[in-house]
Amino acid sequence: MATQSPFSILETFLQDFKLPFTPPDWAVEETQRRVVLLINHVLMQESQATERLARQKGRTVLVQWQTLSFKVLITPAGLLDLAPGGGLSDLVLTLTEPSPLALVQGLVQGGKPAVRVEGDVQLAADVNWLTDHLRWDVEADLARIVGDVPAHMLVSNGRKITQALQQFVAQGRQFVPASHPTPPASTPAAATESAP
C-alpha cells in the first residue's frame, strides 16, 4: 500500500517558497563573488575551458531565475568576473522551472534544468560545452586540506548519499511504511513449478 510521501509538507512549502525579506545588496554581491571564485577555481583546472572562454572575452552572460539574477563578464584570461548592472547582456539564460523543489530534484538526478536561451549562438554553444564537460574535482581539493584517505572517504560517502537521493526521487516520491511490507512478486519460474 503506497502512502503519501512524508516530505509532502516540505514539498508544499517549497512550491510556494518566497524569502520573508529581501537580502541586503552587500550580502547578494558577496554571495555572487564567492560563486564567481568557485567557478573560476573549477575553470582554472581545465585549460580547454579557459581557452574557449578567452575567445569570448568582454562578453556578458546573465543567468536569472524568478527574481534572482547573476551577471558575469568574461575576462581575457578566460575566467569570470561580476559584471556591472544595467546594459544589455550578450547571452541571457533564464531558468524556467518555477518550483525550487523541482529544480533541486532535477539537479540531484543529474539533469540540466530547463532554460530559455536568448542571445549570441556561439557564446551559448561555449557555455553549453562548459556545462557538459566541466566538473569540479572535489576529492583533489579536499585531499589538499585533510589528506588523501579522508578525502576519498568523504567523497565516497557523499556519492552514496547522492545515489540514495536519486533513487528516492526516481521512485516518484512514493513511500511504503516498514510496518506494511509489500509481498514478494511471484517469478515466472515459481509459476511454472506450481502448474500440474
- In angstroms, what is the radius of gyration? 23 Å
Figure out the total of helices.
Answer: 8
Low-confidence stretches: 175-180, 186-196
DSSP strand tally = 5
Which architecture of the largest domain does the CATH hierarchy give at level 2?
2-Layer Sandwich
Helix content: 40-55%
Name some characteristics of this structure.
single chain, 196 residues, Nonspecific Lipid-transfer Protein, Chain A, 5-stranded mixed β-sheet, 5 strands
Verbal overview:
With 196 residues, the protein is α+β, with helices and mostly antiparallel strands. The chain folds into 2 domains: 8-135, Nonspecific Lipid-transfer Protein, Chain A (2-Layer Sandwich); 139-170. The chain contains 8 helices and 5 strands. Strands 3-2-1-4-5 form a 5-stranded mixed sheet, with helices on one face.
Short description:
With 196 residues, the chain is α+β, with helices and mostly antiparallel strands. Helix 6 runs antiparallel to helix 7.
